[in-house]
Amino acid sequence: MQRMPLSFLTPGTEAVVTDVRAGHGMLNRLSAMGICPKSRITVVCADRGSLIVSVAGSRYALSKGMAMKIHVGISAPGGAA
After folding, report:
1. DSSP for 24-38, written as a single string
2. By C-alpha distance, which of 10, 11, 30 is closest to 20?
3. Is it the case that residue 15 has pLDDT exceeding 70?
4. Residue limits of the Ferrous iron transporter FeoA-like domain (predicted)?
5. Rounded CA gap, 15 and 65, in Å?
6. Which residues pair with 16 in a beta bridge?
7. 42-66 in b/e burial notation, b at 16+ Cβ within 10 A?
8. Secondary structure (3-state) at 52
9. Which domains are assigned to the chain?
10. Considering Cα of 12, then 15, then 20, then 24, what sign does the dihedral take?
11. How confident is the model at residue 81, as a pLDDT?
12. What mean pLDDT is reported for the chain?
């Protein structure tokens, strides 16, 4: 599984959150959105300054800075780990 910050993903990519490297306040905010380790997240749109992501059927806008603190894992093509 390849790991990288969420902001590096292209629209349409689905990944699993592996780690959130943020302060206590941001951790609580992201957790309330359903963004926590082991949750599935999909990048819907990536603009210059923000990302729109889908988590558990809801869509949220995140700044690129916030998305850099969310690390995700994506499976290699063909299912190889």
Report:
1. HHHHHHHHHHT-STT
2. 30
3. yes
4. 4-74
5. 18
6. 40, 73
7. ebeebeeebbebebeeeebebeeeb
8. strand
9. 2-79 (2.30.30.90)
10. positive
11. 45
12. 91
